[in-house]
TrEMBL record:
It comes from Stephania cephalantha. Coiled coil: none annotated. Signal peptide: none annotated. This is JmjC domain-containing protein. It holds the Pfam family Cupin_8.
Length: 363
């Protein structure tokens, strides 16, 4: 490999640093917190245009949902208001929907999507809260504008959009989604082509965030799509590949591997585990996270006293502008062929060999 090629890996590593220090204005991996909602102009200028996340407090304190959806009477209120409503619930064996899992036959990873069941809301709420006695984890969610389509009897408890974001972005949200999970519900690393205003109403959400410039650190590969199906009789899940087979590009990194596989995960994904730490933030009830388009995010949650976390997100269309083009260009660079960043070189040859796996042909 020529010097010129080796320099690209080093330049990519420099890009990771520069984005943190120049664009995000921080080297401390802290997400900026605003005590009050910004003006639309400030939001646009200081956060949307530089593609920079922030947490905004005191932005939703006037929503009736904050008091009605949490506290002692919340189960009663929600179950009455939605007594006849069918909602979509994602069932998985471990709380990890839309995440990588091993197929039962062979040692092959696939992208496993949840068993989705439509059920009356009171039953969904019960399954979410009583997870320890069930052979599955239930997560009420559906990323198809589910709040406006499935939860219409409680839409007045929140605002239909976030006014300062709507003004800054000059459009109404494309989708509004509701998420009701418990301490086991997780969302694996991925990115979305939306500007995301993520409001937590009860409990807490914990985000790991990586800027789009860190794309190589996510080891995106194409995985065959599989789906869980849950048999009520046998109380068991099956995981089956779609037929005909389809593939989806997905992030390979699990940031919290079980202790037994920590070493092998660190060897397989050294750019993630040895590169700069992700931004870590907790979004508390009453706060909004602005999660800029194309940022990689991994989400876990801590429940409220009722055993659940409730959040609602507003997806606004992103601009497919020069940043998007730069991102695609960066992603197209194969680090294996142009040289590794120094954080890897320092680890020696064996780590580099694992990167070859990451770039193996997509089957
Ligand atoms: O809350 C979650 O579990 C995931 C949220 C998410 O991925 C999103 O808002 O794009």
């Amino acid at each position: 490999m020529g010097d010129e090629q080796g320099e690209i890996g080093v330049a990519v590593e420099k890009l990771w640093e520069e984005v943190r220090e120049l664009s995000l204005g921080t080297s401390s991996y802290q997400v900026e917190c605003l005590e009050y909602p910004p003006s639309p102009l400030r939001f646009l200028r200081d956060f949307v245009l530089p593609n920079k996340p922030c947490i905004i407090s005191n932005a939703i304190h006037h929503w009736p949902a904050l008091s009605k959806w949490s506290g002692d009477n919340s189960s009663c209120y929600l179950s009455n208001a939605l007594s006849h409503t069918l909602v979509s619930v994602h069932l998985t064996p471990n709380g990890q929907a839309d995440a990588l899992a091993f197929l039962p036959t062979g040692n092959r990873l696939c992208f496993a999507s949840a068993h989705v069941e439509r059920m009356p809301f009171p039953q969904a709420l019960d399954l979410i809260s009583s997870c320890s006695s069930k052979p599955f984890v239930a997560y009420a969610q559906q990323q198809n504008d589910c709040f406006r389509s499935e939860y219409s009897t409680i839409t007045d408890d929140v605002e239909p959009h976030i006014p300062w974001a709507t003004q800054a972005l000059d459009c109404l949200p494309e989708a509004v989604n509701l998420w009701i999970g418990n301490h086991l519900s997780q969302t694996s690393f991925h990115k979305d082509h939306y500007e995301n205003l993520y409001a937590v109403i009860s409990g807490e959400k914990h985000f790991l965030l990586l800027p789009p410039t860190d794309v190589h650190r996510m080891y995106i590969r194409h995985y065959p799509i599989a789906r869980y199906s849950f048999s009520q009789d046998r109380e068991e899940f099956e995981l089956e590949l779609e037929s005909p087979m389809r593939y989806v590009p997905w992030c390979s990194v699990n940031p919290y591997p079980p202790p037994a596989s920590m070493d092998s995960e660190m060897k397989s994904f050294p750019l993630y585990f040895n590169g700069p730490s992700p931004f870590q933030c907790t979004v508390k009830a009453g706060d909004i996270l602005y999660l800029p388009s194309m940022w990689f995010h991994h989400v876990t949650q801590s429940p409220d006293d009722n055993g659940r976390t409730i959040a609602i997100n507003y997806w606004y269309d992103m601009q497919f502008d020069i940043k998007f083009a730069y991102f695609n260009f960066l992603q197209s660079i194969n680090l294996k062929s142009v040289g590794y960043p120094t954080c890897l070189k320092n680890l020696g040859e064996s780590s580099c060999e694992r990167i070859d796996d990451a770039n193996a042909p997509r089957d």
